[in-house]
Write a structure and sequence with these properties.
By secondary structure, this protein is of the alpha+beta class. It is built from eleven helices and 15 strands. Strands 5, 6, 7, 8, 9, 10, 11, 12, 13, 14 and 15 form an eleven-stranded mixed β-sheet that branches. The protein has a four-stranded antiparallel β-sheet with strand order 1-4-2-3. Helix 4 crosses helix 5.
């Protein structure tokens, strides 16, 4: 017999999805047959598989040791418990080849995860934790760090996050094998600022819902070319050019039904000037929609390209600041985020605003 208690890491997950994770070699037909025959039970009751798991739920699987080995494979038996009811043997009594195989598999998992995650955590420098609770983290990503891998050899904030949680014992290697904490919003490599990270499935579900429903208020600091003297909200349609990894902005919705226009998306960007200087203005922009390169392309479309932007910026103007201040990429910083009112489980962040300090290069450019 196998028995385990659900923790907050798995809370909110569908029971059948959870079973597929701990019994990766079992197909749907077998799992639902075992549920019908009450060989798999939830809180000592018959279950259908569609239930949402809650913290403290007890899962019991009444299989023989041989069947458990068959359907769990190498992942079984690291931190869950078994007992001797209904013919099962005590986990402590298992020995010999099966135990040796599991221990060897665990060593491989630990070795691979240490290489993939802890080493990246130790290698990537400059990430600052702005806030952390049981389910989520807010971090300040420096420019130059990827949010997510673009190729298998890349190092990214995703791996840094998992390495940090392993290094601080917030999760175990077995936890990571089953659920991988991840970043929930992506900033371009050379855009700095606040990134939302989910430590648990419950945290991922919350952040996913907030981003989908656009109830998070996200603000950015940026320097743009020219003098901007009034607050404004601008709208348009963003059209992707996949081949060139660029977007363009149309003031009107596309009328053609061609493949390019199919990818057009409505966008809305708000901005207000904070400080006007000789040839540029420091803006705070708010994203009402969140699309690839939205701020950079939208401001460029109205004649105010972002300083340093190699893709949508003014090359001659950028070159002046590259030579004088070593500005190598867009001066765009995700500076502030405000959460909506939230339920008791997330009362610690309900209605709160978090900020990431202005980067040094912003201050340097603004002192000229």
């Amino acid at each position: 017999m196998y028995q385990t208690t659900i923790t907050d890491k798995d809370e909110g997950q569908r029971f059948d999805k959870y079973l597929h994770r701990i019994l990766p070699n079992a197909d749907n037909g077998f799992l639902y047959k075992m549920l019908r025959k009450k060989n798999i039970m939830l809180n000592d009751k018959k279950a259908g598989g569609g239930e949402r798991l809650a913290c403290g739920d007890v899962v019991a699987i009444y299989f023989s040791d041989e069947t458990l080995e068959k359907f769990t494979g190498k992942r079984f038996g690291h931190d869950e418990k078994t007992d001797g009811s209904r013919g099962g043997r005590q986990a402590a009594g298992q020995n010999g080849g099966a135990a040796d195989t599991r221990n060897a598999a665990r060593r491989v998992i630990v070795r691979d995860l240490r290489r993939d995650y802890v080493a990246v955590y130790e290698q990537i420098k400059g990430v600052e934790i702005l806030y952390e609770n049981e389910h989520l983290m807010l971090v300040d990503k420096p420019a130059g760090v990827l949010s997510q891998k673009a190729s298998p050899s890349d190092l990214s904030l995703n791996e840094w996050l998992r390495g940090y949680l392993l290094a601080t014992n917030a999760v175990t290697y077995e936890d990571i094998a089953y659920y991988k904490p991840s970043v929930c919003n992506r900033l371009d490599r050379n855009t700095s600022g606040i990134v939302l990270c989910a430590k648990t499935l419950k945290g991922a579900r919350l952040l996913g819902e907030l981003l989908k429903n656009r109830t998070l208020h996200k603000y950015y600091l940026l320097y743009v070319k020219g003098i901007v003297d009034k607050e404004q909200q601008i709208e348009g349609y963003l059209i992707k050019d996949e081949a060139r990894n660029r977007v363009r902005i149309s003031a009107e919705p596309p009328v053609s039904a061609g493949p390019e226009e199919v990818r057009a998306a409505y966008i809305k960007t708000g901005y207000q000037p904070l400080k006007a200087e000789r040839d540029k203005t420091l803006l705070e922009a708010e994203l009402f929609t969140g699309r690839t390169h939205q701020i950079r392309a939208h401001l460029q479309s109205i004649g105010h390209p972002v300083l340093g932007d190699p893709k949508y910026g003014d090359p001659e103007w950028n070159e002046i600041y590259r030579r004088k201040y070593h500005v190598q990429a867009q001066l765009l910083h995700a500076s502030r985020i405000t959460f909506p009112a939230l339920a008791d489980d997330f009362g610690d962040i309900s209605g709160r605003t978090f900020t990431a300090p202005m980067p040094k290069l912003f201050r340097l450019v603004g002192e000229e």
